[in-house]
Amino acid sequence: MDEQALAERFDECRGHLRAVAYRMLGSLDEADDAVQETWLRASRAGAGDVANVTGWLTTIAGRICLDMLRARRRRGEEFGGLTGVERADGRDPEEEALLADAVGLAMLVVLDRLAPAERVAFVLHDLFAVPFAEIAGIVERTPATAKKLASRARLRVHGAPALPAADLARQRKVVEAFLAASRSGDMDALLAVLAPDAFRRAEPAAELRGAHRIAGETAANPARARNARIALVDGAIGLVVAPRGRLAAVLQITVEGDRVAGYTVIADPPRLRRLTLAVAAPCGRGGGLGGSARPRRARGGAVRSR
Length: 306
What we know:
Blueprint: H1 3-25, H2 28-45, H3 53-74, H4 93-103, H5 105-111, H6 116-127, H7 132-139, H8 143-158, H9 165-184, H10 187-193, E1 194-202, E2 206-209, H11 211-219, E3 228-233, E4 236-241, E5 249-256, E6 259-266, H12 269-274, E7 277-278
Parallel strand pairs: 1-6
Antiparallel strand pairs: 1-2, 3-4, 3-7, 4-5, 5-6
Pfam family, one: Sigma70_r4_2
Domain RNA polymerase sigma-70 region: 11-75
Family: Belongs to the sigma-70 factor family. ECF subfamily.
């Protein structure tokens, strides 16, 4: 395959590579950087007799993303909003906001808590159906170890509910009603879902009491709920607030019966790091991926990379 043919195939694969890189990195800027670096490495190496060009390019992109994730960890960055770096390069933030929402804000938050090799193995296998034999070459482990990395990541992504399924489903229904009412600014709906003596606690030690006071303030600021998504917080249903997939706050919600008895807003980075967050499967479904699509990739064909 000559360079012109490779360039044409690369353009055909660009959207796929961008999707892979975005799920690994959680940043559209970094994903675009990874895609550009993938082209540079591929063009230098040449496709030669590669049978599965998409798989080969995905392998290259995976290694680049793994290197970027490791470098990020060495720098001590807490991406996902705690100390996330924003680049002022003129990109329309709406583009990344829409993409983050399509992937799933809660999913991006949880992925950011995985070790680099775990994240790469999980994204490639569970979201893009890349075989473990190919993932092993990227993470420089055996196929069996790559499988264990993805399995460990999967357990963390889906979490361990602290309540029976029926109780979790009831909690979710109540929190969904609270979130919908908050987004619409519907005072009546908020009063219907909040317990009369509900509380709202925020840092440092600020507290608001009473359904009418909480509902009034919430209804006056419906935009604040726009970036909130349901997630498992320490095994119970709660909310993560993650603009463009960057974790900003967590709401630990206390549900009693069919009402919200109260909630605590946590935004302090050290406290956020101590929370166990996971993607909450929709009611009636197990192991859901939270709003994220599950793209698939054709299997088969040898892959190679530099």
